[in-house]
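Page header: ASSEMBLY MODEL / four components / 1476 residues total.
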Amino acid sequence: MKGKKREEKRTRARRERTYVNVAIVGALGYGGVGAVEILSRHPFVRITRLLDVTDIGRPLAELYPHLESVCDLQIEAADDPRRFRGIDFVFFATPDGVGQVQAREWLAHGVRVIDYSGDFRFNDVASYAGYARRIGREPRHASPELLKKSAYGLAELHRKEIRRAAVVGNPGCFAVSAILGLAPAVREGLVKFSGIVIDGKTGVSGAGKKPQAVFHYPARYESTNAYRISGHQHVFEMERELSLLAGKNLRVTFTPHVVPMTRGILSTIYADLERGIGVEELLKEYRRFYRSEPFIRVVGPDASAATSEVRGSNYVKIWVNADMRTRKAVIVSHIDNLVKGQAGSAVQNLNVMAGFPETTALEFPGLYP
Amino acid sequence: MKGKKREEKRTRARRERTYVNVAIVGALGYGGVGAVEILSRHPFVRITRLLDVTDIGRPLAELYPHLESVCDLQIEAADDPRRFRGIDFVFFATPDGVGQVQAREWLAHGVRVIDYSGDFRFNDVASYAGYARRIGREPRHASPELLKKSAYGLAELHRKEIRRAAVVGNPGCFAVSAILGLAPAVREGLVKFSGIVIDGKTGVSGAGKKPQAVFHYPARYESTNAYRISGHQHVFEMERELSLLAGKNLRVTFTPHVVPMTRGILSTIYADLERGIGVEELLKEYRRFYRSEPFIRVVGPDASAATSEVRGSNYVKIWVNADMRTRKAVIVSHIDNLVKGQAGSAVQNLNVMAGFPETTALEFPGLYP
Amino acid sequence: MKGKKREEKRTRARRERTYVNVAIVGALGYGGVGAVEILSRHPFVRITRLLDVTDIGRPLAELYPHLESVCDLQIEAADDPRRFRGIDFVFFATPDGVGQVQAREWLAHGVRVIDYSGDFRFNDVASYAGYARRIGREPRHASPELLKKSAYGLAELHRKEIRRAAVVGNPGCFAVSAILGLAPAVREGLVKFSGIVIDGKTGVSGAGKKPQAVFHYPARYESTNAYRISGHQHVFEMERELSLLAGKNLRVTFTPHVVPMTRGILSTIYADLERGIGVEELLKEYRRFYRSEPFIRVVGPDASAATSEVRGSNYVKIWVNADMRTRKAVIVSHIDNLVKGQAGSAVQNLNVMAGFPETTALEFPGLYP
Amino acid sequence: MKGKKREEKRTRARRERTYVNVAIVGALGYGGVGAVEILSRHPFVRITRLLDVTDIGRPLAELYPHLESVCDLQIEAADDPRRFRGIDFVFFATPDGVGQVQAREWLAHGVRVIDYSGDFRFNDVASYAGYARRIGREPRHASPELLKKSAYGLAELHRKEIRRAAVVGNPGCFAVSAILGLAPAVREGLVKFSGIVIDGKTGVSGAGKKPQAVFHYPARYESTNAYRISGHQHVFEMERELSLLAGKNLRVTFTPHVVPMTRGILSTIYADLERGIGVEELLKEYRRFYRSEPFIRVVGPDASAATSEVRGSNYVKIWVNADMRTRKAVIVSHIDNLVKGQAGSAVQNLNVMAGFPETTALEFPGLYP
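Prediction written out in full:
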């Protein structure tokens, strides 16, 4: 079979550490550009096609001048019939509803899919329907047959499934910070499963590149606000993943906020400590849980932490604390929403799927200050 | 008696809407300058003396050039023997430990005191000792006899005591936002008293004007961080006031954060709703509780809110919400930390103490954007 | 005559310090809101109508929540037939092309006009045509007969004309900073008239409230850029006014920049010193020229200056310097673009026109930090 | 000779693309950390020692947590006797006065030197003395014999000298932007040599990591200011380099400004066009002059440009314009002050000196937004 042969060849090529070819659908958003920034430094990747629905024929660097001489590709139409040629992986850096319709055809051409949206974050139809209903979308998935072949793209928790998945649902930015911040406590039963509060703060880039009145510079500077109280779309994947870890259904109270910065998410997590658990046990278990994870930095109460420490990088900083007067675990989890919260996780997933060392192209520390 | 006569005269003058004379100790900090900015527009106040321990003899406007032609006073020594002359009110815009030592002598000269620090926020020696111990200060108050004559300076809750108090302990900035955000719920028993979480976000000016590595512009921009988890000094006055409202002792979990802006505090408050209470009851009670308060703006779930709405003003915006899936009240409370959180409250207290209309000089809306 | 009688009555009322009634057309832009913020503190003004073309019937405070309880007016249609009733002054806080069409009717109802745009900054048809042509507008003015009754609204230079003008063309924000920064040097012949360079830096609010890609927070933070090199619309009024001061035509090279802040303009002005002129003469003449001006603060080389010193206020800070190695005067002029550069100047003009003390409602120092 | 043999071996190693060993003196400043960030990605460099005068024995990542797992070196004492061992290149990321004293000993151990300060930017004693005198330092250079072996570290202009230099004086950040922005015009005689004005705007990081009152976040946000008018230390290397290009002595008027951002320099350059020169010729010559330069991006009037386009990268963006009404060339030059303006240039110089491809480790585009 042609398809099989191609796949064999590609596998060999990968073993020999030659290139894989990557296409990006939705190349003009922050998520697409973020992937270009990282992949242009990736030794085993060739960015082969940039696809979008506007600006067809224009060089990417004309729209994002910082990429001049870094990426000289032009935007091609997202429905260009030649788009599958020679591609090994496609990134859907697109909003909900695109990947679930278009992924199928890419897969039919032997291309594995990494989707940024909520389309493939739930690998059964019922869970997806629950998610979709809550955020006001059509509950029927457009490609239900793909859900079984999909994995939730948080490598720290689903590395094995990601490795063999045809489709990976890249996690939501707030979800990355919250799930990684809670996983050890919930998995090891260190905290009570009810009453968990997640107070999330994000930079403005989380809202994407589209100008809006509330993100107009004069409206946005010197202002902090909460929004979508009790209805943010990432709460469902948080609850899904934490319930899997807990072995039983749990619910969380999550409030997102926007603070006047561009990059970064800080989630402050409050949970009642189980009897007998203090901050030492908590810290010990967090360190143990993440001991082999290259991107997770766990620190204890004597340290301090800030989003600036992970700005521009794929690292996650988890500050483990407890207020012993009230017996609350207070876990502070920090990421760069555009890297570990988006394009960085996508590349990490690509590395896992392609069998590359997981940290390839992702070990940059960001820039400080 | 001389003192009594003077007081009578002053009372008469006040009725006749003539000036009161105000001195500011610690005039060079943000809290002192904030008082100058507001009082310079106050029709019934004359700023008579600016006192500090550095820059003696220099005009304030030399150090704060925006005050040129607005305030032409020079800094005088905080221990200048003539400092009491003709003064009706003194603002101690000073850190913990100053007011409790120096207030006594001002009072002896018939001057009423408004102190910005924690020195007079607890009107009995035991409570003060508890506070002091927790923040690592000497637990014995330097002027214990004054505590009985002091009031906690949150006019919305203690207007009557403030009116007749000799000394007012101006509340902490985080405490203002948290206490006002919780008062109706706790007073009316709408939420459970245990398990309350307060997630506070402040602008950088809360740390004062002293340069520090963590507040250096390049270190501070594009960065959000939590700090002093479980040990912030304002938690004690929050618990004190909320316990008074609740009629029983309660504890809160409070985590302060710094976000990259200069002005503003947003506190997100989580509390378990009492059985039978939904968001409508909550909102109704908040509106009722604050119906006569000129500076409190209560809005319900359909609204939105941001610190920019109160930037530069003495207003408090309280956004009443609930996550009914988890039955948590989610109250978001917004203030300008330097106005309602500091100098504005101080002037509001002065208005109450002096018998002026409470909103005098405080009705400015701030500037937007 | 009805008109005359009304005018007499108004004049009497003004002498008696009663209110004038003000309508604002374009109330929903930053310029309209800025006027509301200032006029709501004005003791002799009643804001009577807010007019705009969208959001008719909605309270202003719904759109600008910081104005809740400060201004409770609703937006009325800009073409509401009752709009003229009882109005003494109308602010056209509108872009080019509106005032020149609509002013006529207001004037016919005895209402004096303050227009924010370029429509009335040139009081003869030829000058206006030159301006209009250069910025790509129809060169014929829609109400040429009004130009003779109009004055350029920079009170420091045209106080007398403003006092009796029926229409005042409020100056452009960059123009205010540049003209006031150069006026003494040009008027007194201290610098050569050719080769003058003005390097202007503005905060983002100068572009108004409409969201645009380049003013989207993530695009705008941490970025400085020049724009419209050699074609900015304010260059023509700069040249007009400076030529009047010089007594001969002069041209300037002006480059505007946007810096990542919301408020403030700093213009750095370079001009060759005339023979025999040093920095002392320069400073002396600047001080003399502005000695009676309540809003101008002149300082010499030993001082320093920043836009933060005038943030939120109507003051102008002019830092007089020279580079004697190259014999260039280097004048740095600072304003708040939304106050002295817009609504503040408009209110200052209103005060002049109405015979109020010129500083009424404008003496606030802004807030610092 | 031992020295010669070592050098031969090193040259061979370099040809074979093995590592060079680099030490950084002043590792704890922004310039040192910037070098670590870049060199940690450099395939032919091993960072071997980090030296400083404080925090001896502490891991760098403890002080700069973003470098955890990126650089695990500890700070060693700057006078540690073993500091020379095995080192090929030393970076002096130190202020004026350090390199000129300490470089000699490193050179004696066969180590080539890249110095960030003004110590080696002038390769003759007279020029250095002129510079030193103007900035108030001792005019006698501490190691005058080294000046002849030194080169000015702007590779675009001095590549050949840098290649063989023992010591390279890395250029000042403002100087990089100004010199590169003017070089083609001055070299080709397209503008008049007198009357050149350079209006520079820098982010705050240019002032280093030391907290100061004027760089305290609340003092610095929302504020733009000029400073050190006519006396900035970089003006002298600008004049030196431009005079070399012009073939005759020229002087410039330079005014530095700080704008509220952390990274980036934008210099707006004004110069009178020579007769017959228009913007087309200007642009053509700029393109020709820089046609082989990998880090220079020249664009013409139809483009736009901003510091965000070079944020975090070693690229220089030069926007070529002219105001033909006043016959001024208006050149806008953009860099990241911490990369091309400091550590990036230092690494570029290292690449040139070591014979590595000049762009090694420097092709990253930065992150956007």
